[in-house]
Amino acid sequence: MRWLLDLDRRGLCSVRPKEPLRFWNTWCVGGCAEAVISPRSESALGCIRKMTSEEGVHAFVLGEGSNVLIPDEGLEGLVVLLRDDTSPPIVEFSSDSRVEVQVSAALPLRKLLNWAVRRGLSGLEFAVGIPGTVGGAVAGNAGAKGRSIGDLVTFVRTIEEDGNVRVWMGNELSFSYRKSGLSSGRSWITSVGLNLYPSSDGDIRQRLKHFASFRKGQPKNAKTAGCVFKNPPGGSAGMMLDSAGCKGLRVGGAMVSLQHANFIENLGDATAGNIIQLVDICRDRVRDKFGVNLELEVRVLGDGPSPPEG
């Protein structure tokens, strides 16, 4: 991949060969990638997308690495990091009732929420406590308690397999529970348009408190990837896992959180294999007790394209 070395030499991206991926995900597990790349511009990202597609090289996009499990054997191919962008949102339109902003996909979701709150803009309160980047949130339609980021999306700007830019309208993206039309990962998200709504500071703070109350029982300062399983229709994965006696179950260095049964913690020396074994045990217990087959919310990376993760 001489083109990659050339991009690095020209300062258009940084390349870390044979990089351990445990440094780039919130579970802190997983083997190495052939290289971890940090593009420095949208044009560089387009070149990477085009060349990996033409050469048949697997490429995985990672944001902050939440909501993802990387195998112990690592990943065959490249990992492209889209994270840590501190560029402020750009106001595209503003009125008394609506403000449309364009946001970098690499901006952490928590920073966008803080930006909106400081400016008296409502709509994102449900995102309090949700880890990851804006791009990862849009690809997986992150949300809480019936609200999701897809409700706010006006457009999404992506890099396609040919390296060209495409702009999708929000109504083209088929947002549903923890899924969108961009979940396949074939389109790499670079920026997002969102509708936000002017509101009083008191009302925004009240809504933040409301959504934060649902996260009080979740583990803090622990190595997790967020919720492991999606909620089944009409039910709660966490309650089912708790009722099935999953809290405290342990395989190697991986343990089901004692605070919330839908979280698996890395106690320090867990492997991806430990986590997968624990996932299987928990899923079997819930199936045996409730007849429900829980679906993973975290994505296990491997062959093929990947959406932006967290």
Automatic annotation (TrEMBL):
A GO biological process held by the record: cell division
Keyword Disulfide bond: no
Catalytically driven reaction(s): UDP-N-acetyl-alpha-D-muramate + NADP(+) = UDP-N-acetyl-3-O-(1-carboxyvinyl)-alpha-D-glucosamine + NADPH + H(+)
GO cellular component, one term: cytosol
Gene Ontology molecular function terms on file: FAD binding; UDP-N-acetylmuramate dehydrogenase activity
Main location, first listed in the record: cytoplasm
InterPro entries hit by this protein: FAD-bd_PCMH, FAD-bd_PCMH-like_sf, FAD-bd_PCMH_sub1, FAD-bd_PCMH_sub2, MurB, MurB_C, MurB_C_sf, Oxid_FAD_bind_N
Domain FAD-binding PCMH-type, first and last residues per copy: 29-199
Record function comment: Cell wall formation.
Listed NCBIfam families: murB, PRK13905.1
Full protein name: UDP-N-acetylenolpyruvoylglucosamine reductase
